């Protein structure tokens, strides 16, 4: 008996989720098979996010080659995944000496590398370690596949995207339309929590989430949700706080054994599939992501984006905000500016 049914089609687009129609499959993403030859790299492939993310990517016909890199255990992860009966060719690379080889010819680079949050840690506590990791990996991307779509999962995303951008600028290869901070988990959580409260099918709920990817910079736009939903003020406030603090909810529940890895892998796969769909010419692919932006006074800001063959085709902006949401944006600006400056300063001071 096959775990993945071959005839079930699964759409992973803005606001839609993996199929719940009988047997769940990740093997059939709607897109013409002849175009699906992308080479995708996962940097940090042996970690808690990297392994399940690599599994989801291996099971998609959107991926022709899967290049896995980490500082340890990658050959084993690659060997394990290579036994799966899907066509993506998997190669494992391990250690700094093999990083360049892992990136040659890649169309999309997904970076979940870095240390996870532990109880009591904020995303900023991760900064020094993860900033160095992301800068090193961005340097390798700039040298080996400068035109690839870069999808950063490594926290703190509010700072690691400015770090990636500044490193790419040093090499003269920065394209703001191709560098994304993956905030999809915030959208996935918002969809799940709203569906739970309203008794809706989560697969049919879509809540845009704007701002950044930490604490109060996470701004769910419940007023723009589809289908339309309404909550009393106290419930709306509690729901917003839960979405903003959902990562800590998981860290506490795992009691020191890790952070959000499985849900983040799902969200990372969803975003990567949307990027690949758009690169293949699919129309109307919309995802929120943290990117270079002129929508607010912050240099970087997450909003819904129309994706195309070359990355961001159009920034769809903030849309019409409620008074409650306007206040959330105002409260987030200062923290976001600080995180952005912290990332830029890190690269400026690099030796």
UniProtKB/TrEMBL annotation:
Chain ranges of the Lactate/malate dehydrogenase N-terminal domain: 39-181
Location of the Lactate/malate dehydrogenase C-terminal domain: 183-347
Entry's family note: Belongs to the LDH/MDH superfamily. MDH type 1 family.
Lineage: Eukaryota, Metazoa, Chordata, Craniata, Vertebrata
Protein source organism: Salmo trutta (Brown trout)
Matching PROSITE patterns: MDH
Catalytic reactions on record: (S)-malate + NAD(+) = oxaloacetate + NADH + H(+)
Catalytic-site annotation from UniProt: 213
Gene Ontology BP term (one): malate metabolic process
Residues at which substrate binds: 117, 123, 155, 189
GO cellular component: a single term: mitochondrion
Gene name tied to this protein: MDH2
Protein's recorded name: Malate dehydrogenase
Record has NAD as a keyword: yes
């Amino acid at each position: 008996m096959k775990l993945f049914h071959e005839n079930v089609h699964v759409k992973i687009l803005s606001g839609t989720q993996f199929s719940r129609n009988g047997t769940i499959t990740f093997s059939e993403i709607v897109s013409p098979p002849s175009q699906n030859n992308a080479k995708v790299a996962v940097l940090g492939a042996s970690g808690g996010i990297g392994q399940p993310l690599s599994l989801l990517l291996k099971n998609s016909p959107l991926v022709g080659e899967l290049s896995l890199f980490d500082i340890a255990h990658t050959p084993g992860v690659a060997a394990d995944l290579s036994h799966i009966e899907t066509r993506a060719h998997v190669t494992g690379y391990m250690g700094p000496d093999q990083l360049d080889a892992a990136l040659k010819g890649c169309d999309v680079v997904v970076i979940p590398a870095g240390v996870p949050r532990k109880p009591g840690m904020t995303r900023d506590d991760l900064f020094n370690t993860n900033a160095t990791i992301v800068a090193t990996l961005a340097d390798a991307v700039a040298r080996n596949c400068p035109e690839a779509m870069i999808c950063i999962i490594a926290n703190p995303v509010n700072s690691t995207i400015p770090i990636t951008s500044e490193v790419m600028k040093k090499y003269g290869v920065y394209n703001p339309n191709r560098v994304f901070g993956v905030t999809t988990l915030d959208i996935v959580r918002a969809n799940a929590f709203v569906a739970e409260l309203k008794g809706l099918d989560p697969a049919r709920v879509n809540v845009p989430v704007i701002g950044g990817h930490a604490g109060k910079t996470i701004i769910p736009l419940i007023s723009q949700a589809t289908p339309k939903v309404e909550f009393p003020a106290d419930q709306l406030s509690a729901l917003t706080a839960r979405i903003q603090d959902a990562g800590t909810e998981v860290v506490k529940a795992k009691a020191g054994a890790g952070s959000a890895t499985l849900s983040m892998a799902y969200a990372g796969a969803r975003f990567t599939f949307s990027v690949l769909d758009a690169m293949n010419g699919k129309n109307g692919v919309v995802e929120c992501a943290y990117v270079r932006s002129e929508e607010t006074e912050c240099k970087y800001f997450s909003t819904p984006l129309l994706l195309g063959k070359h990355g961001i085709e159009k920034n769809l902006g903030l849309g019409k905000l409620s008074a409650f949401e306007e206040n959330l944006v105002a409260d987030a600006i200062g923290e976001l500016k600080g995180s952005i400056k912290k990332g830029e300063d890190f690269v400026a001071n690099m030796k």
